[in-house]
Amino acid sequence: MFTFSFNHVALSVKDVEKSSEFYIRVLKLKEIENTASDSKTRWFSIGEGKQLHLIPRPTAEIKTNKAVHFALAIKDISPFLKHLNTMDIAYADWLGTPDKNYIRKDGIKQFYFQDPDGYWIEINEDFD
């Protein structure tokens, strides 16, 4: 038997500066030191010792769909939805209905939006 704990999500990004600005502005993530190398990869704390790594790949073809996403939980999505609206960032439910969140079968509210490279981010209220 193995025991794991989740450590980080790494995303290939076309423009690491633009993507870093997005994650700082939109998700209010705090940049932390890249202790692994002297590369241009930027690291961010997503809380509880977990990290987001943005790896510059200017020539990479980035293809994804909504089923490939990462999810962040928040106690109340309403203030964050207002934040997205003030920043003019589009969001939708799972089916793609604009400006709509969804209530899952288990009662949890959630919605999705995309970063500058098209990666999907889910925000939900599954917060303990």
UniProtKB/TrEMBL annotation:
Alphabetized SUPFAM superfamilies for the sequence: Glyoxalase/Bleomycin resistance protein/Dihydroxybiphenyl dioxygenase (SSF54593)
PROSITE patterns in UniProt: VOC
Protein origin, superkingdom: Bacteria
InterPro entries cross-referenced by the UniProt entry: Fosfomycin_Res_Enzymes, Glyas_Bleomycin-R_OHBP_Dase, Glyas_Fos-R_dOase_dom, VOC_core
VOC domain sequence ranges: 5-126
PANTHER family, per the entry: GLYOXALASE_BLEOMYCIN RESISTANCE PROTEIN_DIOXYGENASE (PTHR36113:SF1), LYASE, PUTATIVE-RELATED-RELATED (PTHR36113)
Name of this chain's protein: Glyoxalase
Lineage: Bacteria, Pseudomonadati, Bacteroidota, Flavobacteriia, Flavobacteriales
